[in-house]
Fold this protein.
Amino acid sequence: MVMGISSILSSLNGHHHAACWLVLIGYLLDLADGAVARQLDACSALGAKLDDFADFTTFGIATSLLLRTSDLLDNILCVCYVMSVFIRLCFFTSGIPFMYRGLPCIYSAAILASASLLSGENLPMLRVIAVFMILFMISQTFYPHDRVLESQAWKKAVYAGGVVMLFCSSFPPACVYYLLWSVSYILFPTSLWSSKV
């Protein structure tokens, strides 16, 4: 949640680059928080609600502000993006263990933040990506809920690579890494990212 609020403040103060990186840091932290809570035996109903609120803040509000301009249509797109994250978080439980209905918002946020950094805030491209991310999030497609840090060794290595890229890589390779990671989740959800793989 701290990353989301910090990203929101960065966007509102015109620090777009920092806002994108804070969303990507939030992406890594969100993938780790459940594993840490389970390891510490600190899972609770309150924690689950706080996790949804943190997701909404970071991957809904903060990510939508990456698209914000003074143009009315861009602001409508921001509202649509936030509402799709809200709908996805509230109503799209699949009822199937380890499965989500609709694209999890962390992946759409990582794609938008990475694409924004790589393209130098190319708004026409970001608008198109945002529309596709909205459609993926509210779709009825099933996506696996894989606990990356409690899964196969190669998935842990992908996560560790994300951390290394964040702190040790120059800017473009890290963005490409996060973009490919997130796009692979959309293109190969069950063949790569299922907990059974």
